[in-house]
Design goal:
The protein is an alpha/beta fold. It is 41% helix and 19% strand. The longest helix has 24 residues.
């Protein structure tokens, strides 16, 4: 694995960027796109959809090469802010080998948990020739990319990605307070777009790449989609608060499994709702809902802002191939028949943990560009 340091990066002519469909992914992709203005494509994906997206691009690439065989000599492929997991690693590595044999540079930037059963999956990518650049868990991917290839004009994107991904808070980055309302609107709009109107993600990424000072609070699409997303999220939150069933997995630390199995319209709101519940109920929350795929549950796990447990370790207890996250946020796609063993494993694991659970605030050393 490569340590991320400021380096002289010489872009080729064209970039194809596979980015996570959230604000940190959007900002990460935009930082890259600014180095390839006029010659970039951004494809928004998730850890689950990345393999299929790479396969589709391979088919597109073959057709392109029939017209221009030199295209690959000037092509860089980036995968940014997309957590790899056991379900996607083999396909990702296989595609990377294919691209590398054609002379295409493949780079991967991320900071999610990348372990399965306690072991990192990164060696598989490195064997396939992927240049991997990882930050510590809890670091925004935009920060990792800014350190590698960012410029002064993309510092704003780095900061927005860091704020969105909770690497830092507005209290720690007071000069960004004027961006607070706009960032929250953008977060809601991106979540809605990823669920209902994916073309919005492409439009807004193009605008950002060409206008680094874009004002989110005056952007009509952002205003419209953020209103849709906030109303939908609030309705869901009220429903979950009143109608869900709760199982207390642990008293100290307090861990609650929250079942809401009578709705399947959560979209991208699961994590936000789980976070709100964690704050309101002063507990680590496992929000369990039906997945869009039959026979699976979606589980969003959030820490309380003061009650901190190792969510990476907790999530790995599921031994799920589709899982990943960061310090305070973890997500799992789990077969229905694996849920009870997972919850029992959490109970046993929590019993072995030792208090205190109130996190001691650490002095945050500010980065030079913060």
């Amino acid at each position: 694995m490569n340590d991320v340091v400021s380096t002289s990066w010489v872009p080729r002519k064209t970039a194809v960027i596979f980015a996570d469909e959230d604000v940190d992914g959007l900002m990460s992709a935009t930082i890259v796109a600014r180095r390839y203005l006029g010659n970039f494509q951004i494809k928004f994906v998730t850890a689950r959809s990345l393999p299929d997206a790479l396969q589709r691009f391979k088919r597109t690439l073959k057709k392109r090469l029939q017209k221009d065989e030199n295209y690959v000599k000037e092509l860089d492929i980036f995968v940014v802010d997309v957590g790899i997991n056991r379900a996607s690693i083999e396909d990702f590595a296989e595609s990377a080998v294919y691209f590398r044999r054609m002379g295409i540079r493949v780079l991967y930037f991320d900071s999610h948990s990348n372990k399965y059963n306690g072991l990192t999956l990164l060696p598989k990518l490195e064997e396939a020739g992927v240049k991997t650049y990882l930050g510590k868990i809890g670091t925004a991917a935009a920060s990792v990319i800014q350190d590698f290839m960012g410029t002064e004009e993309t510092v704003r994107f780095r900061k927005l990605g860091a704020l969105s991904d909770r690497e830092v808070s507005f209290n720690e980055m007071r000069e960004m307070l004027p961006e607070k309302e706009g960032l929250r609107m953008l977060q809601a709009a991106v979540a809605w777009g990823a669920w209902k109107e994916r073309s919005f993600l492409h439009r807004i990424s193009w605008e950002l790449a060409h206008n680094v000072r874009l004002d989110f609070t005056k952007h009509q699409e952002i205003i419209e989609y953020s209103n849709f997303a906030n109303k939908h999220r609030d309705r869901l939150y009220r429903h979950v608060s009143k109608k869900s069933e709760i199982l207390e997995l642990s008293v100290n630390p307090r861990i609650l499994a929250v079942f809401c199995l009578d709705r399947n319209d959560f979209g991208k709101a699961r994590g936000t709702i789980a976070g709100h519940l964690a704050g309101e109920w002063s507990a680590v929350i496992l929000l369990i809902t039906h997945n869009e795929t039959k026979q699976f549950y979606s589980i969003s796990i959030r820490n309380h802002y003061r009650l901190k447990v190792d969510l990476e370790r907790l999530g790995q207890l599921a031994l799920a191939k589709s899982a990943g996250g960061s310090k305070d946020a973890y997500r799992i796609t789990l077969r229905m028949d694996k849920l009870i063993p997972f919850l029992v494993a959490i109970q046993q694991w929590a019993y072995s943990l030792k208090p205190p659970w109130v996190r001691k605030e650490k002095v945050v050393k500010k980065r030079k560009d913060v």
